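Q: A small favour: would you put together sequence and structure tokens for a protein?
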Amino acid sequence: MVELPAEAQAVVVGGGVAGCSVAYHLARLGWTDVILLEQHGLTEGTTWHSAGFVGQLRSTVTQTRMIMYSAGLYPELRELTGLDPGWHGVGGLRLATTAERHEELLRQAGAAETYGLDMDLVSAREARDMLPLMEVGDVRAALWLPGDGWLDPASLGRALAAGAEKLGARIVTGVQVTGFDVRDGRVRGVRVGEHVIATGTVVNAAGAAAGRLGRLAGADIPIVPIRHQYVVTRPFGVPASTPTVRDPDNIVYFREEDGGILVGGYIRTPQVWQAAEPLSEPRTLFEPDMGKFAESWESARRRLPGLGETGGQDAADFAKVVHGPEAFTPDGEFLLGETAVAGLWVAAGFCVHGLAAAGGVGKVMAEWIVDGTPEYDVFGMDVRRFGAHARGARWARAKALDSYSKYYDVVYPGEERTAARPLRRSPAYPRHLALGAEFGEKAGWERVNWFAAPAPAPASASTGAAVAAGDGDGDGEEFRPAGWAGRFWSPAIRAECLAARDAAALFDQTSFAKLEITGLAGLQRLCANDLDRPVGSVVYTQLLNERGGIEADVTVTRLAADRFRMVTGTAFGVHDAAWLRRHGLDVRDVTSAHACYCLWGPKALEVLGELSDDDLTFGYMRAREISVANVPVLAQRVTFAGEFGWELYCPTEYGLTLWDVLTEAGAPHGARPAGYRALDCLRLEKGYRVWGLDITPETTPLEAGLGFAVAAGKDFVGRDALTAPRRSLRCLVLADPRQVCLGGEPVRVDGVPASRVTSGGYGHRVDRSIAYAYLPVGEEGPDAAPPGVVEVGVNGGWVPAEIAAEPLYDPGNSRVRHLPGA
């Protein structure tokens, strides 16, 4: 029996590239008392059968940066450890054979410029020059990424492990973790048979077995093992310098291996691997299934006609058929971060491309554990992006299978997936259906994107008080944006925006997360703004990390002397609650206890006045208990639309009644229900920031123009890091109003890459195309325009843009702060 230590600073469970990378990076940051445990040999879970592709360009800037870091690390590992990680820097091609995919390549090329990623858009002929074996008759264009390549997975794992050991970490194989000691919600030790290693930090890097391992500690980790298959042909003289190729329109990828071609693909009918103890045996593989693989193989044969001479109808025709389990997640993104069990971390769910990002995963995980926050904004991969609904294995399977089957599809902004829906619904959901709502989904919630009621109808509480669908300005189609921004769009969005401007709009924001917190002193320490204000005050504030980055963007209402309610975004409640608890606060998630409807517009006072006998003239950023047609309501004078009005909170059981009385009272005044797409347009005109887009853990309030929400002379986490900004978030107005940004578009100043769009859209009250981007701050200060011409890359072209003072709409805020007509 291997002698194990009685205690360790950290225990990493899983000897694949993720676990080895985490151990290596922890040791590099000075945590040398780290032990890695693997039940088999290193890399014998899922790493060993990886296809090894390292493709740097991904859908998010963070994942791209992680893979770029990895690509830089892997060639250095030989020098650091003396071992060859099996890096083949041959470059990579991504093909487009349809007009839609070509558009996607243009967007990706623009994104790559903002990432600083070396990439070229090349012709079909140029692509064939790089790979003469390839048939390109149907290829419209290709992306060439010279920094791409592929790795030998086992060699990489061994090199990372050797690096970890060289820095002081210990690696033990052939031992199985059988449980965890968890007390008071915190991990205290790791069990290996009868032996316990006392530790306060455990990293679950068990790949396809990460879900089972998490359950041993009482943590829900939505990992779904899915069968994935690739083949390797017999050698036929393919050069070792052959670039990697992805052909997503034909759901196939390939590269050279041992003088032959490795071919893989994402089939449309994936199969979950259901096992009580996944990966209990080393090097798990399934029987070849050439029938399921037929579409990808035929695509490969069309693209590489030389493959026809290698056979391929039967498994015996190949040098190797690899059909093994891969760990997928409900949304196709990694699972990283601390679980609901304090001290128990996860680094799993790599969805086939984990080898490419393994170096970056180790980096961010080690920084997160040692320093409290990673360098990059990793919320899109944070395990806390999922709520309690992710516990359900059926939900996770349905989502993961849908994600896998569409892995290579063109992803259009605003396109909604339908798997495992509906799940979480507002009390007013049946009324939304009756009004022809188009729904989107976020964190399991059904949320209205826009309403499409065909015509006016008499108000009726039993039918949901249908309202006019007229847009107030023709049929509205003339405002449909060009390109991708107009693909999932409706003229109802404009009608709803104009209703907010001219009458009133009613938004269902029940999905917004609501947290009740006890303790002024602790909350004051975490919030940049001052919360010590009279009961009934509403405060807009940010929660910062030690680097001054924004971890949360919230409103906080003082309900009593020592009791507060924090409202945050739909998908951020679990994340924000964990941040508060990590700093010792007592937090209750009360999201499901309260419906929330927002009534905003110049006639909001008239509408609500017909339903309430209470004084409704209390001031901006104040909250008061009122009655609305017998419904007890907490009304808050807060707006995200830039119009007068309230957020109206009531206990959930009153939610349907409140919606009915508000829509019935509002209809005669021209008020109408509205959705989140309109709300996004309205908030852009007012310059209201969105966390995760305009502001992130990598941006400070001073950079984001939120200095007004930072209390002077107050001590709070991150204060000492708030130095004079070297960049600032600026409002851009595009010269062509039909060219509308969706986020991620490149921004140039005098033809030189300068930034990327954080968020964008069309402002219907000002009739302008609006985008936000961080631009460098010159000697004249953050409000001065940078010298030169500003251009934004939209739909394959460059559109001039003007830096505008914000907000564009109602710059004096009179519509928000004053009573209508005052």
